[in-house]
Write a structure and sequence with these properties.
Elements: H1 4-23, E1 28-31, E2 35-41, H2 47-52, H3 55-64, H4 75-88, E3 92-95, H5 99-108, E4 113-117, H6 119-129, E5 135-137, H7 144-150, E6 156-160, E7 164-167, E8 180-186, E9 191-194, E10 197-200, E11 205-211, H8 219-228, E12 237-240, H9 256-273, E13 278-282, H10 289-299, E14 305-309, H11 310-319, H12 323-327, H13 331-345, E15 349-354, E16 357-362, H14 368-388, H15 406-416, E17 422-423, E18 431-433, E19 436-442, H16 455-465
Parallel strand pairs: 1-5, 1-12, 2-8, 3-11, 5-6, 12-13, 13-14, 14-15
Antiparallel strand pairs: 2-4, 6-7, 8-11, 9-10, 15-16, 16-19, 17-18, 18-19
Length: 470
């Protein structure tokens, strides 16, 4: 592998073979937060008058570039977190814990376009759009807008008491409205003028302010897993996320463990009820070191697979005791971090997605040829979603003409050239590095994406739904 022709052959093979693999799937369940995503498309100059007219917000924007707040308790916190995301051109999500702050944000920078959101909502829509025959999604108390958005994909089902899984259009609709994730989607080059200087986004990305009071303690997620256990054997794969919604401490004096442990216990009951189900956890931006440490020790040993991006991996390296790896994430540091994460948690599979590159590692036998096909097909789907906002099988062939990401090609070569590495990370047998088997491909690169929200969810959910360990 390594020439343009060889990459094109791999992508063509993926386009021809993966749709049949997806169509043969038994079904995937995804949880546990599904919300309405409220997209606000950034406009040039729109933040400047807001900051110029409010010295407190201007100061928050300047100080926020150094370190974002852990939660959003005020308009100043929102501005500080948004500024950090822009300054670093990095996706960031923070939870709004104050109702007045949510009202201020909704009035000041209103939603342009609602769509399905939340980790599980994004994953469900992506999998259903690409042809997986049965997708069960966590749903909070349904409301008309959420039902309308989910019903865009008829394969999506929800759990209903006494009925098991049913199409979302046949489920009760008890609520008038619900959770909303406000998303500031910004393009490469967007500038914001501060008293201390000008922020300029180096690449397109987004900042998410999550308003989800009903599941802020994950009680809805726990209840969903309890209801899933009796029917879990009907599904081959389970994908989870959502612990980023937790706070370390709550106004009533309880701590996050009070709410996290029942959910972890409920996952254990699902696994006992369906011993063959494969479980993936999708990491997310979590500010609290305590919560991250808890997940490393108590949740990850109970799942098979983990997905994360480059920013989350750097934080993981620090949490694992190696800040020097986080400071310089070259090929060796990436594999060292993933190797240690496998050893500390017992994870069978880790998937990393960074700009231009998808990489999976495993410490056990793996179908490497199928894994690389799944990654290539996912890269086409991600390109389609970036360029169009949705990805269906008919959209993917045109993205064979989308160029390969130069950074990804370089990263694959860097992995191949590592001292002690055996094989080719993009070849049929993958690359052997110590105890790890690694599979990596360069992605297709959309220069000016119109939609980045939920890309990480799609990128992790599609290959995992095809993962078949020995």
């Amino acid at each position: 592998m390594g020439t343009l022709e060889s990459w094109d052959r791999l992508y063509q093979e993926a386009l021809e073979s993966v749709p049949d693999m997806l169509a043969r799937g038994r079904g995937v369940a995804v949880g546990f937060h599904t919300v309405v995503d409220g997209l606000h498309q950034a406009r040039p100059g729109e933040l400047d008058p807001l900051l110029a007219g409010n010295p407190d917000l201007a100061e928050a924007a300047s100080s926020g570039t150094l370190s974002p707040p852990d939660e959003l308790r005020s308009p100043s916190d929102v501005v500080a977190a948004l500024s950090w995301s822009l300054a670093h051109s990095t996706a960031l999500e923070r939870v709004i814990t104050d109702p007045a702050t949510f009202r201020w944000l909704s009035a000041t920078l209103p939603v342009d376009r609602p769509t399905v959101g939340g980790n599980s909502g994004n994953m469900a829509l992506a999998l259903a759009d690409l042809g997986l025959p049965r997708v069960l999604v966590f749903a909070p108390p349904l409301h008309p807008l959420l039902v309308r958005l989910l019903a865009q994909a008829p394969r999506i089902q929800v759990l209903v008491d006494g009925q098991g899984s049913v199409p979302v259009t046949r489920a009760p609709v008890p609520a008038e409205d619900g959770a909303l994730h406000w998303i500031f989607e910004y393009p490469s080059g967007l500038e914001v003028h501060l008293p201390s200087g000008t922020l300029s986004a180096a690449r397109a990305n987004r900042f998410i302010a999550a308003w989800n009071p009903g599941n802020h303690r994950l009680a809805e997620g726990t209840a969903w897993l309890e209801a899933l256990a009796p029917v879990a054997g009907e599904f081959s794969h389970l994908v989870l996320s959502g612990f980023q919604l937790l706070s370390e401490r709550y106004p009533d004096g309880t701590r996050f463990e009070t709410w996290a442990q029942p959910l972890v216990d409920a996952l254990g009951r699902v696994r006992r009820a369906a011993p063959r189900i494969r479980v993936h956890y999708e990491w997310a931006s979590i500010a609290s070191p305590e919560i991250r440490t808890y997940l490393l020790r108590h949740l990850l040993p109970k799942v098979d697979s983990l997905g994360l991006n480059e920013a989350e991996m750097a934080v993981m390296a620090r949490d694992l005791g190696h800040p020097e790896w986080a400071a310089s994430m070259g090929p060796r540091q990436v594999l060292e971090t993933l190797r240690l994460l496998h050893e500390e948690t017992g994870l069978r599979r880790i998937q990393l997605h960074v700009p231009g590159l998808y990489l999976t590692t495993s410490r056990s036998a793996v179908h490497t040829a199928q894994e690389r096909l799944a990654l290539a097909y996912t890269a086409l789907a991600a390109a389609a979603r970036s360029a169009r906002g949705r990805a269906t099988p008919g959209d993917l062939p045109s993205h064979l003409a989308t160029p390969l990401a130069p950074a990804g090609v370089e990263a694959v070569e860097g992995l191949r050239s590592l001292p002690g590495a055996l094989g080719d990370p993009s070849g049929p047998e993958g690359l052997r590095w110590g105890s790890l088997t690694a599979v990596a491909i360069p992605t297709r690169w959309v220069e000016r994406p119109v939609w980045t929200v939920g890309l990480g969810d799609l990128i992790s959910a599609v290959p995992f739904s095809l993962w078949q360990p020995y």
